């Protein structure tokens, strides 16, 4: 995808096919997370960011068996939904900075010196880790780590 095809968190999660409504603000996302994101978002995000279910489980710190159970049950818990949304938002931001989803995914999977040689994907399981990744993306965008 190119810059013209803007990547958003909701599109990474499956868009209108998965979400009950198109989120227009952070408050809309709060409501979606509180009610739980449909498990259909799992297949969408796996396909979008080209990782296995096992890698996703590790990135989100959600046991793989729990992901499989949620897929059967149809909806993620509030906490799991928040983690899934955090991954989608960070991925969308990386795609915006790199102006390409494939470049963003490569960056998320590669060790980054600015993150202590951790992969950005490995830090998304916590709020502070995700903030560090977003901060690093902001610095890249402004040429600090160019």
What general form does the structure show?
globular
Distance N to C terminus: 22 Å
The helix fraction, in percent, is: 55-70%
Number of DSSP helical runs: 9
Rg, rounded, reads 15 Å
Largest sheet geometry: none
Uncertain regions spanning at least 5 consecutive residues: none
Quote the average pLDDT: 92
Q: What order do the SSEs take from the amino end to the carboxyl end, as H and E?
A: HHHHHHHHH
In what range is the share of β-strand residues? under 5%
Number of strands: 0
Question: What would you call the structural class?
Answer: mainly alpha
Compute the number of structural domains.
1
Short recap of the structure:
The chain contains nine helices and no strands.
